Task: structure prediction
Amino acid sequence: MAYEYDEENVFAKILRGEIPNDTVMETEHTLAFRDIRPQAPVHVLVIPKGKYVNFDHFAAEASAEELADFMRVVGEVARQMGVAPGEGGGGYRTISNAGVHGVQEVPHFHLHILGGRRLGRMLPAS
Ligand code: AMP
Result:
C-alpha cells in the first residue's frame, strides 16, 4: 500500500507520551481521547496504536485483533459517554476524514465520535 507514515504527526507524539491527552479509554491496541477543539458536547477521537495513516490503510493492513479491538472501543466509548441510543442516549455520529477531499489534518487514522446535541445534516448542501 502506498502510504508513508509521518512519525512526527501529533497523534504519534501523543502515543509516544511526548504531548498530553485527555484519555477516555485505552486498550492494548487502541487509545480514545477528547478532541482538543470539540465541535459537540461529546467529541472523542479513537485511534489505533499502530502506524496507520487513514481508514483504508487501517482496514487493509491491521490485524484482525487490532480491527476488533478498535471497533469494540468505539462502541464502548459511545456507551461510556452516554450517547449510545441502545442505552437511552441521544445518538452520535462517527466521522473519519481521509486525504485531500476528506480534509484530513492529522495523518494518523482516527475516528471522531460526536454527540451530545442534534448534529444536523451529515453534509452541508452544495
Ligand atoms: P481531522 O481533520 O479528521 O484530521 O481532525 C483532526 C482532529 O484532531 C481535529 O478535530 C483537532 O481538533 C484534533 N486535534 C489536533 N491536535 C490534537 C491534540 N493534541 N489533542 C486532541 N485532539 C487534537
Residues 10, 19, 21, 35-37, 45, 97, 103-106 surround adenosine monophosphate (CB under 6 Å).
